[in-house]
Amino acid sequence: MKPEKMLCVLLQDQQPDRISIAEVPIRSLKQGEVLVKMKAASLNHRDQWCRLAMYPNMKYPSILGSDGCGEVIEVFDDKDKSWIGKEVIFNPNVNWGDNPNYQSLNYTILGMPTDGTLAEYLIIPAHRLHEKPAHLTAFEAAALPLAALTAWRAVFTKGEISKGKNVLITGIGGGVAQFALLFSVAVGANVFVTSGSEDKIQRAVELGAKMGVNYKEKGWEKILQKQVFMGFDAIIDGTGGENFGTLAKMLGFGANLVVYGGTAGTPSPIHLPRLFFSQSNIKGTTMGTDEEFEQMLDFVNKHSIVPIIDSVRPLREAISAFDRMHRAEQFGKLVISMINK
Ligand SMILES: NC(=O)c1ccc[n+]([C@@H]2O[C@H](COP(=O)([O-])OP(=O)(O)OC[C@H]3O[C@@H](n4cnc5c(N)ncnc54)[C@H](OP(=O)(O)O)[C@@H]3O)[C@@H](O)[C@H]2O)c1
Fold first, then answer.
1. Is residue 268 part of a domain?
2. Ligand 1 pocket by Cβ (under 6 Å)
3. Which of 171, 219, 255, 334 could be joined to 43 by an S-S link, Cβ 3.0–4.6 Å?
4. Residue 289 resides in a domain
5. Which range marks the domain in which residue 53 is found?
């Protein structure tokens, strides 16, 4: 039986901080919906952008969180009864639409504007459910959906990464970057990374990267250029900022610079002759289609991919996970446990 109220990470238009651990009522199910008792959720940078009111189309109040894992305990429609008792994860896409090249105009992501996973219970349409990969714990599965989907499209659909390709992944401490690393290594690409932390570079090497450089140190690009003389076949970047122009210079002939985020802010200028003479491409990417979500899950199951978890903390302490992300201290996903509140 569901209780009348639950704890959640609630986004409100209030100062000094827009997020708090709050108690809210649990509404009744509508047609097509199921009720999930959450076991775990994980943070993405969009949750922190929402906290800073730096995400488009803010809606208050909203429950944050796009990723999670839990058990279905109630369904509205009889046809969905087979989900009851199953451990599930969620495709965070809302209304991608029919065009695989880009999302529809009314596309949104689970967890603002629709109420998300950082809560004890989640109400979600049954068609967003997928069974938890059997080789993953609930904490690991909760770390998967949004970042892995984004990395999947960036690496394979846009980056065209395959065995033997030379790939650079920037800011390897990040959630998306780490799935890009795991996926690229799994297909046999030669992976190089950047990070602001020597420790994170070392951990990336332990996970299969060839080597890495610290983007905070002068001359980092020269070290990489010596490794991959003809330039990278693909660069996967979620940061932009002052290093962006340098990344564009490191592309090989016909290569792809895939951009999924801009954590470090306004990009530096690009040397256009270098870009057009190398016939290379800069491609934007966002999330992925529902079909790519299924492909990503098949790949994760086939290669027994295990998400990297930075830390797990109880729901009542979730705000400290946002702070850790803000300071870019994490290596891997910040997981919130609803089992141990
Ligand atoms: N387009 C989409 O669909 C999509 C999906 C997910 C995320 N995003 C965006 O992508 C970005 C990353 O998201 P996330 O959830 O993976 O974030 P995250 O886990 O918070 O990772 C951010 C990482 O960026 C790295 N970084 C910071 N400044 C850097 C710099 N100057 N140069 C290189 N790396 C730098 C840091 O890596 P080190 O710690 O290794 O230094 C940090 O750990 C965010 O802006 C997010 O909004 C977009």
1. yes
2. 44-46, 49, 147, 150, 170-177, 194-197, 200, 215, 238-239, 241, 243, 260-264, 286-287, 325, 328
3. 334
4. no
5. 5-144+307-337
Tell me: do 155 and 193 sit in the same domain.
yes
| pLDDT digit string, tens, across residues 296-327 | 999 999 999 999 999 999 999 999 999 999 99
* CA dihedral over 109, 113, 116, 121, signed as positive or negative: negative
Q: Where are the alpha helices (DSSP H) in the chain?
A: 45-51, 138-142, 145-152, 175-186, 198-206, 220-227, 244-249, 272-277, 290-302, 318-326
Whole-number Å distance, alpha carbon 298 to ligand 1 midpoint, is: 25
Distance from the CA of 239 to the center of ligand 1, in angstroms?
6
| Atom of ligand 1 at shortest range from CA of 329 | 39
119 phi/psi in degrees, rounded to 5: -160, 165
Helix (H) or strand (E) holding 237: strand 232-237
SS3 202: helix
β-strands 309-314, 281-284: how paired? Answer: unpaired
Ligand 1 pocket test, pick from 66, 213, 214, 263 with the greatest ligand atom count within 8 Å of Cβ, gives 263
